């Protein structure tokens, strides 16, 4: 099983996770820019975070044989803090970089005017930088948030096939299926979706434009949920080719629209250093 | 790999240069895209990280920054060069450091050299100790930069100005480094011995 996890926050995960992911078949990931569990208080805090997404985390993943990409954006939660608004003016510098494969996560958190303004502006930036878009749908008032997100996407003029609407479930899947956008599902231990419910959605809707991710982060989550979904599919009668399509070819097709995927196999050299720091602490090569 | 001898790469670079010449602010998004838009790779296969010889994309980025600089006064130039470095990934930071000596900055970009010398990325240390640092960095900072090369394995062939700036105080620092290595039963790097010989003859 080869796996591209199209949404995972590796900054919050350990090297044990990287090893377990590789063993389960994960060979590439995309790490969307989001919040860190604790609010940032300035734009400069975002810059250091973005720098780690295009620098240190990419390097760290490669040490474990995994290609790391990222998406860059001002997330909806922090779009509400005027101290962070300056980030929008600096985003173009990051949206121009190699390995940045979409604008995201954009979308709604609490359905405020500030969130909508940042969302609309970042849809424009996606058009300007010829990048796909990753849309986060909210935990609260999800149906209305999903519906309004689709309206903004339609108003932006972006082709729907360049937009992925994420964190869907049984009550929002039909809204997005009718829009021609891609459909993302985050498989979690106890919230969002689980792998068995996911398999039922796949049985009902097919595999077109379907994306499955672990969305693993600093909360209770599981970076192996992509592999577990693949196994649940096989148990339910889906073929190996179906699993490969869902877990590899679909995310490659979506993010490949950026022209910036880095999918050649990694020559995992654990002795390499990034800015002088090896992930092998205290075992620096002489 | 393509390089700048390739006509397609040269043509693409010429297009980018035309674009920043017309609108210098475009460099904010064109500078990061250079490797993918023009070419990338080592200019010298024996120097894959571009420590001694700038990589192909470094050379292209320097050319682009020089073109944009024509459209700015000193204050704007300092502001934009600083921003390209601040928001650059390691490749972009290296190219900014390589460009400093080609730009009319006087000593206004010394903070960038200091940032690079505080880190441990050998690619940035090498690029930071080029002609710009040889010309502008104070004696203490420059000597410690050279010493850091010996610690981190940056070849001294990457450092500009050793003939002009090497002095007795640098010799004292390098001798202290060599003495610690010998006391620990470790080899003294060839570059340290070479530098000590050279400074000894001069002083």
Relevant terms:
heterodimer, A: 286 residues, alpha/beta, TIM Barrel, 8-stranded parallel beta sheet, 8 strands, globular, disordered C terminus, B: 203 residues, mainly alpha, 66% helix
Layout of secondary structure:
The complex is a heterodimer of chains A (about 290) and B (about 200).
Chain A: E1 3-5, H1 15-24, E2 26-32, H2 43-54, H3 56-62, E3 67-72, H4 87-95, E4 100-107, H5 113-128, E5 133-136, H6 142-156, E6 163-166, H7 173-177, E7 182-186, H8 195-205, E8 210-213, H9 225-235, H10 240-256
Parallel strand pairs in A: 1-2, 2-3, 3-4, 4-5, 5-6, 6-7, 7-8
Helix pairs in contact in A: 4-5, 8-9, 9-10
Chain B: H1 7-22, H2 27-37, H3 56-69, H4 74-86, H5 90-99, H6 110-118, H7 122-128, H8 131-136, H9 139-152, H10 162-165, H11 168-183, H12 190-202
Helix pairs in contact in B: 1-2, 1-3, 2-3, 3-5, 4-5, 5-7, 9-11, 11-12
Overview of the molecule:
The complex is a heterodimer of chains A (286) and B (203). Chain A is α/β, with parallel strands linked by helices. Chain A has ten helices and eight strands. Residues 280-286 of chain A have low confidence and may be disordered. With 203 residues, chain B is mainly alpha-helical. Chain B has a domain at 1-105. In chain B, helix 11 runs antiparallel to helix 12. The radius of gyration of chain B is 18 Å and the shape is elongated. The termini of chain B are far apart. The mean pLDDT of chain B is 94.
Query: How many strands, which pairing sense, and closed or not: the largest β-sheet of chain A?
Result: 8 strands, parallel
Oligomer: heterodimer
Amount of helix of chain B: 55-70%
Please state the average pLDDT score of chain B: 94
- How many angstroms does the end-to-end distance of chain A come to? 37 Å
Largest sheet of chain B: none
Number of E strands of chain A: 8
Structural class of chain B: mainly alpha
- At CATH level 3, the topology of chain A is TIM Barrel
Beta-strand proportion of chain B = under 5%
Rg of chain B, alpha carbons: 18 Å
CATH homologous superfamily label of chain A: Metal-dependent hydrolases
Outline of chain A, from the CA principal axes? globular
Count of alpha/pi helices of chain B: 12
Which CATH architecture of chain A would you pick?
A: Alpha-Beta Barrel
């Amino acid at each position: 099983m080869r796996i591209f996890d199209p949404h995972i926050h590796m900054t919050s995960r350990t090297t044990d996770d990287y090893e377990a992911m590789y063993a389960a078949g994960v060979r590439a990931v995309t790490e969307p820019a989001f919040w860190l569990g604790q609010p940032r208080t300035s734009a400069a805090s975002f810059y250091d975070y973005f720098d780690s997404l295009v620098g240190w985390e990419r390097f760290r993943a490669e040490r474990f044989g995994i290609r790391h990409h990222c998406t860059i954006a001002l997330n909806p939660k922090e779009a509400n803090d005027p101290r962070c608004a300056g980030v929008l003016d600096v985003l173009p510098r990051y949206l121009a970089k190699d390995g940045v494969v979409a604008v995201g996560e954009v979308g709604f958190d609490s359905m405020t005017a500030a969130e909508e303004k940042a969302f609309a502006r970042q849809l424009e930036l996606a058009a300007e930088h010829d990048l796909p878009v990753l849309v986060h749908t909210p935990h609260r008032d999800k149906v209305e948030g999903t519906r309004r997100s689709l309206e903004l996407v339609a108003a932006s003029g972006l082709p729907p096939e360049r937009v992925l609407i994420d964190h869907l479930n049984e009550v929002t899947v039909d809204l997005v299926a009718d829009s021609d956008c891609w459909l993302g599902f985050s498989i979690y231990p106890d919230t969002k979706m689980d792998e068995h419910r996911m398999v039922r959605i796949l049985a009902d809707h097919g595999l077109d434009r379907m994306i499955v991710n672990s969305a693993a982060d600093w909360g209770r989550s599981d970076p192996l949920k992509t592999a577990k979904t693949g196994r649940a599919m096989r148990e339910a009668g889906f073929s190996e080719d179906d699993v490969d399509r869902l877990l590899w070819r679909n995310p490659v097709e979506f993010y490949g629209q950026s022209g910036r995927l880095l999918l050649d196999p990694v020559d995992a050299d654990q002795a390499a250093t990034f800015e002088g720091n090896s992930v092998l602490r205290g075992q620096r090569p002489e | 790999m393509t390089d700048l001898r390739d006509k397609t790469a040269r043509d693409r670079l010429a297009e980018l240069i035309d674009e920043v010449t017309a609108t210098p602010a475009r460099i904010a998004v064109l500078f990061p895209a250079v490797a993918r838009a023009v070419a990338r790779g080592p200019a010298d296969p024996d120097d894959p990280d571009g420590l001694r010889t700038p990589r192909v994309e470094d050379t292209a980025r320097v050319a682009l920054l020089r073109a944009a600089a024509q459209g700015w006064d000193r204050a704007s130039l300092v502001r934009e060069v600083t921003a390209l470095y601040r928001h650059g990934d390691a490749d972009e930071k290296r190219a900014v450091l390589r460009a400093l000596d080609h730009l009319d900055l006087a000593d206004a970009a010394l903070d960038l050299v200091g940032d690079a010398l505080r880190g441990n990325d050998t690619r940035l240390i090498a690029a930071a100790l080029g002609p710009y640092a040889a010309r502008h960095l104070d004696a203490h900072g420059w000597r410690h930069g050279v010493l850091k090369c010996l610690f981190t394995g940056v070849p001294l062939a990457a450092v500009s100005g050793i003939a002009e700036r090497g002095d007795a105080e640098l010799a004292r620092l390098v001798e202290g480094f060599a003495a610690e290595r010998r006391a620990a039963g470790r080899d003294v790097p060839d570059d340290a011995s070479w530098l000590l010989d050279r400074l000894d003859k001069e002083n």
